[in-house]
Automatic annotation (TrEMBL), chain A:
Belongs to the RNase PH family. Keywords: Cytoplasm, Exosome. The keyword Membrane does not apply. One of its GO terms (cellular component) is exosome (RNase complex). Residues 29-163, 195-257 form the Exoribonuclease phosphorolytic domain. Its main location: cytoplasm. Gene3D superfamilies: GHMP Kinase, N-terminal domain (3.30.230.70). It comes from the Eukaryota. This is Ribosomal RNA-processing protein 42. It is found in: Cytoplasm; Nucleus, Nucleolus.
UniProtKB/TrEMBL annotation, chain B:
It comes from Cryptolaemus montrouzieri. The keyword Ligase does not apply. InterPro entries: Exosome_cplx_N_dom (IPR025721), Exosome_RNA_bind1/RRP40/RRP4 (IPR026699), KH_dom_type_1 (IPR004088), KH_dom_type_1_sf (IPR036612), NA-bd_OB-fold (IPR012340), S1_domain (IPR003029), S1_RRP4 (IPR048565). GO terms for cellular component: exosome (RNase complex); nucleus. Keywords: Exosome, Nucleus, RNA-binding, rRNA processing. Its main location: nucleus. This is S1 motif domain-containing protein.
Length: 283, 275
């Protein structure tokens, strides 16, 4: 729903005065709520709620053959589904562009060497590997989608359990893989390098992080910065406006420092997860 | 340097509903399809239906009984308008001789051109020139406060702004809550002593703005001052009030001037945190 001019002015002046409409400063994040292992039939899942933004991520695994040019690596694929429940704009094919933009951004961020070691997903060189399908479902949209999605994806990958292989029988072109009988003996992924994305929004003369829906409407443009292991892996510009090189530099710097902060908080929270927690959507 | 980012685990979530805390009787909540009674001397009210001689709830909510009439009042619902209600709405469409307004009800409400005060407050028949000027008065996205003039048979509302207290809203914050949380009272316009004005729309839209001084009343509420910068102290109060209202709504507390003021005073003792 579009805002009126007076509301936009109010938001704009608020950003100028470093006091946003919810009392935050320009570099502040809204508190989040994280839940892992919510989808029982997936190999790993997470749900993240950032104020009014709600994202559910599930990871599914399949055996596949690796790309001929990368015989030692597994595969990783992202799929974003924009539920029309999230916002009426997603009805029909409305969410398609956003979905493609999100999955492309994730794919490009995870393509970095620092991000995720795909060699761990190799079962047999050039013949068999694990393929991870990361399905992202947007349940509600309240601004700052890129950040929320990247945090949820990282948490879901943290939660992902890959079955252990007991034996591989090769008979000509036939490959028979046997998975360990014990369903609890699984390996986990090393996600320390999985990228986190931070959206830096330019409103008026200043840059802010974690914009809400109203602030997104007031911004002239935004830069999404993906950071893994202290390196920028992807930079994406959204919105219509253009950036002055100096502003762009500031945006990158701000996004970078916030991403490190976010990384620390997320790893701390993920470390607190106890096994067999049973919450579900309703508590 | 940015401040700490809070990520909470869902297991640490606190149920903030006040009704759960001991002393109060916790009303039983019916879910759709749940049997209310099997005796057939009761009458079927809103939110219920009859199935094989059993009276069942059709919405999730609490039971209300007046003599023999049983109805279930939903906890969350769209706004059901009543004549005389004060509402806050957003213009979604400019049509011929009328505006469409989103008031959180099932259908968009109608604001006819004949039900607004013209700028300058002159009283006359609306001409074709006025029809051409409609977008200058109110355009898509504008927020207005209005009163419900009429409820049509399909539940859609017709609004009017024929009083100086209604009209276009200027700079401020709009908060959305459930309509059932707004307590109906004598006045829904409040000038709070903390230095802000509040419009508690019965449709669940709440408008927070700096104190409106009623000296220049002749304007008729179509003028926005976009140059004016709200002072930081007022802005802080408004933000705090906004957060208080959301906190009250999360705890399912009724919203009216006293409850909001109490929450505001209580919140002042809590040091300013991230949110």
């Amino acid at each position: 729903m579009p805002l009126c001019d007076a509301e936009k002015t109010f938001v704009l002046h608020g950003v100028d005065a470093n006091m946003r409409i919810d009392g935050r400063e320009r570099e502040d994040y809204r508190p989040m709520e994280l839940e892992t292992d919510v989808v029982s039939h997936a190999f790993g899942s997470a749900r993240l709620r950032l104020a009014n933004t709600d994202v559910l991520v599930a990871v599914k695994i399949e055996v596949d053959s690796p790309f001929p040019e990368k015989p030692f690596e597994g595969k990783l694929e992202f799929f974003v589904d924009c539920s029309a429940n999230a916002t009426p704009d997603f009805e029909g094919r409305g969410g398609e562009n956003l979905a493609v933009e999100l999955s492309n951004c994730l794919a490009s961020a995870y393509r970095s060497n620092e991000a995720l070691d795909l060699k761990k997903l190799c079962i047999m060189k050039g013949r068999k590997c694990w393929k991870l399908y990361v399905d992202i479902l947007l349940l509600e949209v309240g601004g700052n989608l890129f950040d929320a999605v990247s945090i949820a994806v990282k948490s879901a990958l943290y939660n992902t359990q890959i079955p252990k292989i007991k034996s591989i029988h090769v008979d000509g072109s036939q490959i028979d893989i046997q998975v360990c009988d014990d369903i609890f003996s699984c390996t986990r992924l090393d996600i320390s390098g999985a990228p986190l994305m931070v959206t830096v929004c330019k409103i008026g003369e200043h840059c802010i992080v974690d914009p809400n829906a109203a602030e997104e409407q007031c911004s002239v443009g935004a830069v999404v910065v993906a950071v893994s292991r202290g390196c920028l892996s992807t930079v994406l510009q959204t919105g219509t406006g253009s950036f002055h090189p100096k502003t762009l530099k500031e945006c990158l710097k701000l996004g970078f420092s916030v991403a490190q902060n976010l990384e620390d908080s997320l790893m701390e929270t993920l470390g607190e997860i106890k096994p067999n927690q049973d919450v579900g959507f309703l508590k | 340097m940015s401040r700490k980012i809070y990520i909470r685990l869902a297991t640490d979530r606190v149920n903030t509903s006040v009704a759960i805390e001991g002393l109060r009787a916790y009303p039983s909540i019916y879910t759709p399809g749940q049997i209310i009674t099997n005796q057939n001397e009761f009458m079927r009210g809103h939110g219920t239906y009859e199935d094989n001689g059993l009276l069942k709830a059709s919405v999730a909510g609490v039971q209300e009984k007046v003599n023999n009439l049983i109805s279930v009042r939903p906890l969350k619902s769209r706004y059901n308008g009543e004549v005389g209600d004060v509402v806050v709405g957003r213009i979604t469409e400019v049509q011929q001789k009328r505006w469409k307004v989103n008031t959180n009800s099932r259908l968009d409400s109608i604001l006819p051109l004949s039900s607004v005060n013209l700028p300058g407050g002159e009283l006359r028949r609306r001409s074709v020139e006025d029809e051409h000027m409609m977008r200058n008065y109110l355009q898509e996205g504008d927020l207005i406060s209005a009163e419900v003039k009429n409820v049509y048979s399909d539940g859609s509302l017709s609004l009017h702004t024929r009083s100086l207290k209604y009209g276009k809203l200027g700079q401020g914050i709009m908060v959305k809550v459930f309509p059932s949380l707004i307590k109906r009272s004598k006045t829904h316009f409040h000038n709070l002593p903390i230095g802000i004005s509040l419009i508690l729309g019965t449709n669940g839209f709440i408008w927070i703005c700096p104190i409106i001084n009623n000296t220049e009343e002749s304007v008729g509420g179509f003028v926005q001052n976009l140059e004016e910068v709200v002072p930081e102290i007022t802005r802080a109060t408004m933000s705090r009030t906004r957060n208080c209202i959301l906190a009250l709504a999360q705890s399912k507390m009724m919203l009216f001037d006293t409850s909001i003021l109490f929450a505001y005073e209580e919140s002042k003792s809590i040091t300013y945190q991230n949110y």
